[in-house]
Inverse folding.
């Protein structure tokens, strides 16, 4: 079955998950290759099986080349130790999962492969990222959307994944079912410290305390799971690594000091909170 036809079946089976970002009314049907709401606003399914829900153009600093580099880094296993810790924390693996700020979709794809069986929707504001994810991975439904004007119904989601991406906790709580989970991954103080060593001195230190405090304002007694490991990179992977993160974009690394980037520190925390019943 073509991806556009698979997407059509998915949306028909899960219309209750979506609302029109223009008027906030229900979607009622898929006519041809268009999703139609009660007020007759329409959104076209692409050949890749994606939907574009942005209400206005969005500029993204994430180029296709950068996203391809990020995908290659993901596929070589850079994030797998973190995702292996995250996966068992998902309480409802057969439930409806939303990946908020999915980038090129590698995190969702890995978790799907680990055993997520329920509907898995991944969205990002980056059209390039969503198109790359949809072209690469199966059984994930990719959307271009803005968290500030999200095209999702209230109270329909069991799990929200928010991996190294901005948050909107009022919107998260609107989307979650009672008792539903937010699983947020944030950098730790030593995250990519080898890259930070190339930054101006005032940018070499990092604290995630403000981010943690904000999370804890919204979720009582959240669980905090530390993640610490190192990743060894080849010379080619160092090049991709520098391209995949804004921390590396302005670094000119000579052949003599790439050695310091051959082993990268991954220091993160996984925060897990539940919406009040």
């Amino acid at each position: 079955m073509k991806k556009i036809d698979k997407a059509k079946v998915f949306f028909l089976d899960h219309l209750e998950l979506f609302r029109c970002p223009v008027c906030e009314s229900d979607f009622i049907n898929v006519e041809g290759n268009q999703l139609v709401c009660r007020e007759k606003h329409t959104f076209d399914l692409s050949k890749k099986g994606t939907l574009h829900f942005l209400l206005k153009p969005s500029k993204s600093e994430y180029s296709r080349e950068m996203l391809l580099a990020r995908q290659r880094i993901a596929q070589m296993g850079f994030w797998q130790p973190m995702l292996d810790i995250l996966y068992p924390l998902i309480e409802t693996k057969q439930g409806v999962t939303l990946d908020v700020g999915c980038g090129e979709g590698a995190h969702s794809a890995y978790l799907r492969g680990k055993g997520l069986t329920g509907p898995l929707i991944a969205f990002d504001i980056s059209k390039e990222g969503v198109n790359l994810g949809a072209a690469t991975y199966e059984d994930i439904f990719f959307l271009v959307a803005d968290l500030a004007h999200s095209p999702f119904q209230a109270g329909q989601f069991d799990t929200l994944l928010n991996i190294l991406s901005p948050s909107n906790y009022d919107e998260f709580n609107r989307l979650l079912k009672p008792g539903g989970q937010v699983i947020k991954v944030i950098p730790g103080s030593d995250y990519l410290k080898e890259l930070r060593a190339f930054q101006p001195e005032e940018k070499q230190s990092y604290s995630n305390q403000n981010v943690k405090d904000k999370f804890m304002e919204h979720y009582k007694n959240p669980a905090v799971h530390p993640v610490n490991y190192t990743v060894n990179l080849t010379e080619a992977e160092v090049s991709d690594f520098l391209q995949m993160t804004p921390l590396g974009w302005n670094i000119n690394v000579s052949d003599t000091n790439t050695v310091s980037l051959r082993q990268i520190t991954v220091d993160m925390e996984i925060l897990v909170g539940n919406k009040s019943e």
The two ends are 40 Å apart (CA to CA).
